[in-house]
Amino acid sequence: MRLSRYFLPVLKETPAEAQIASHRLMLRAGMIKQNAAGIYSWLPLGFKVLKRIEQIVNEEQQRAGHIPMLMPTIQPADLWRESGRYDAYGPEMLRIRDRHDRDMLFGPTNEEMITDIFRSYVSSYKDLPLTLYHIQWKFRDEMRPRFGVMRGREFYMKDGYNFDLTKEDALHAYNRHLVSYLRTYERMGLKAIPMRADGGPIGGDYTHEFLVLADTGESEVFYDSAVTDLSFGDRQIDYDDVEQCAGILDEFTSRYARTDETHDADEFAKVPEDRRRTARGIEVGQIFYFGTKYSDAMGATVQGPDGKPVPVHMGSHGIGVSRLLGAIIEASHDDNGIIWPEGVTPFHCGIVNLKQGDADADKACEDLYNALTAKGFEPLYDDRKERAGAKFATMDLIGLPWRITVGPRGLKNGVVELTSRRTGESEELAPDVALSRIVEIYGKA
Amino acid sequence: MRLSRYFLPVLKETPAEAQIASHRLMLRAGMIKQNAAGIYSWLPLGFKVLKRIEQIVNEEQQRAGHIPMLMPTIQPADLWRESGRYDAYGPEMLRIRDRHDRDMLFGPTNEEMITDIFRSYVSSYKDLPLTLYHIQWKFRDEMRPRFGVMRGREFYMKDGYNFDLTKEDALHAYNRHLVSYLRTYERMGLKAIPMRADGGPIGGDYTHEFLVLADTGESEVFYDSAVTDLSFGDRQIDYDDVEQCAGILDEFTSRYARTDETHDADEFAKVPEDRRRTARGIEVGQIFYFGTKYSDAMGATVQGPDGKPVPVHMGSHGIGVSRLLGAIIEASHDDNGIIWPEGVTPFHCGIVNLKQGDADADKACEDLYNALTAKGFEPLYDDRKERAGAKFATMDLIGLPWRITVGPRGLKNGVVELTSRRTGESEELAPDVALSRIVEIYGKA
Hints:
The structure is a homodimer. Chain A is α+β, with helices and mostly antiparallel strands. The first copy, chain A, is built from 14 helices and 23 strands. Chain A has 2 domains: 9-338, BirA Bifunctional Protein, domain 2, CATH 3.30.930; 349-444, Rossmann fold (3-Layer(aba) Sandwich). Chain A is globular and about 80 Å long. The model of chain A has no long low-confidence stretch (mean pLDDT 95). Chains A and B meet through strand 1, strand 2, helix 2, strand 3 and strand 4 of A and strand 1, strand 2, helix 2, strand 3 and strand 4 of B. Chains A, B: Homodimer.
């Protein structure tokens, strides 16, 4: 993309309403615009990151064998009356009457609807196991929306639902989700720690939240520092392998790690003192096993191997897709702006032309731009007639992990400059070497 | 995808509520499920086609230089009060009160919001031209939703908005959209004819609707049969080329083609009698130029070259993404089911194993499946223990354009069968030749 043809409305002023770094930086970098309290438009740059995150979530869900579909945003109230949650949900549910005076609502989650879909079509244990998921806009009418996309009202979320014949099978689905979530977050450059959680309004005996450590997190967390040393890495997973998935769950959850909701001071005291940590965390996902709660209430049964009807065991599993942008920025920024991890960056690298209009500089930039594009990369080329300082400031603010700086002086010596946004370190390289370096970086990433 | 692990709930019975073929076939093929009147879930197969269509729309919009972003579904009423449409829109607007008693609505379209975004950031003619678009769920509270996704309440639509300094520039944007829409529909295997249209509630001096001819269309259309001979083909387009875009508009719109809303019997009479046609059509898109209607009402001005503020010239341009599934099926089906054009098929080909459990047949199917997957195709392998007849019926119903049938008898002669869904013709080929044929078909498609 050439910046002269893009829509990137960066702000010089820091918006007064933004209290935390991610909110401030997303506004300043022209990623989002507030349309109403807790409701945002995703401007082109923000939308691009949202899509990258969505793609990673999709790839990892499908790798785990989960099947994508899509439920609508507007739901009939009757489904929620069946489960008893229509009255229980409270004022966070956005309730709507249509022109025929039917009670509808903007879905805050989808347990009822997916259970209704399941019971409409599936009648035999032979069609299990089954895990369906969707990524859809949801609405929770928060009393006080704040922190930008971190606690908005309209938000984008992946929610998946497993249907299994037995508790044992459903716990494998639970473990499979935990494993796939670990992979998902790590691909985004995040360390998200699974912590024992509270069931909350969805209910659930087994549940873990995934928390990203950040000073601005809404939850106080307590953990054994050994959990932060764990890394998923590039291990090969067979998602049908019950033992392997259970082993990974053990590895990542056997040490103490809880939010304040489930914190147990006595248990925490057993952690060696030098490894006891208290910090703040941002919740970016949660997995639940809740047994037959919804299948009992809504009559979602299958015929078991013995011919008798049995209610299916279910779980639901969520990743806060839009919220992740905030979490990633909270975990990765500095005074000059955002620092995108390679896995989610909106553009793979920036190209800064120090002297737009200089024939050599223009040509070198175009050549790099075309070569990168031909190799399947998306560079952002700042081809505006602006001072170098302004171009650098924009690139730093929007946080592309790599920048190639091209100027007439360097070109006379046959070099351009490749700069890491994270370390600030620069190298002078021949243009084709800079190109190979980008290929190498993302080949690894 | 292996069918044994997929969720494809095909129905044997024809649902009573479905009056037209596309609705009937989408229900029977397990593509959609109605959750409330005019509100549908997209089951995995339907969702896959929806995403293919969305991707084509995205690719063609970006090819034309239009920039993707995303606006929320819920909008504040105040924006619509500025344009005067809050009261004018009528009962099709889904009006909502949030917990703080603020008037909100589920967006049926986005002229107001995009104009607000534009005026918040753009102040100079130097930032023009600009075309932003999004693909988002919308809601129109239809009195009588019907025909499945063709006239639903919650629907998925691409809407794009151009901002230009002059009428002349805006008309180029109009032409550019027309050209990109022609390409878009043709890639989906559709012949969509641009017809002179009526501005309707959005207003507009220049507007064309794109109609797909089908007996079940809601509009009566009148046209010169010469328009159906036109084809976009693989011509190279430079979307910045004003002459070229205007030339294509002329080529595709100079002959008589109108809906009943704008039909002019006297003009129609001038068409040579043997080329006069009356038929029915399904609207799958519309383009508008409406000048400064919204920029005047909402104060969206830029500083012109002479330093004086001028209201921008705008247009809006829509493609009914979810509705397109219905239109494509109306245009392409037979008594046995859907016939997907190669451009939008959910899976590139089906593999039918005539004797699941036979070692040779199983191995040949697995080999084909793996070879196709390795080449970047998505096959659907029917690996269930079902009768051959049931497997063929499912494949015909869901409409994959190509089917490879594998059985022990053929394998003894070293062949599998490649069958075209459209013509029903089969060829016996060695498995590797069948594979090359699939590559060749989609290489061309």
